[in-house]
Amino acid sequence: MTDDCLFCRIAAGRSDTRFLHEDDQLVVFRDIHPHAPIHLLIVPKRHIRSVNDLQDGDRDLLAEMFMTARRMARREGINQSGYKLLFNVERGGGQVIFHLHLHLLGGWK
Prior knowledge:
- The chain has a five-stranded antiparallel β-sheet, with helices on one face.
- The chain has one domain (6-60, 72-106): HIT family, subunit A.
- It is globular, with a radius of gyration of 13 Å.
- By secondary structure, the protein is an alpha+beta fold.
- It has two helices and five strands; from the N terminus they run αβββαββ.
- Helix content is 21%, strand content 21%.
- The protein has helices spanning 6-11, 59-75, and strands at 21-22, 26-30, 38-44, 83-86, 102-106.
């Protein structure tokens, strides 16, 4: 955990953020500035700065992030209508918080 990282603090339970899902590797919560009717963030508890900082040993974590996104889409009722999964990478790619996270967006009519 990095003390100056917002998502590290959230994942450690040091905020009032309500988790929709939590396990030993990940937390899932709603984005406070949503870009879709449903906008969830799937965030590893372990600090990884960005996609560029992933290591070969992170393959299982990435698979779990995608499988969790799939389960959350079903739980939110958007698995059939469709959704987007998005990683922003570095400032030029739109990354604002430098802690790896996967956006799940959907719910458009």
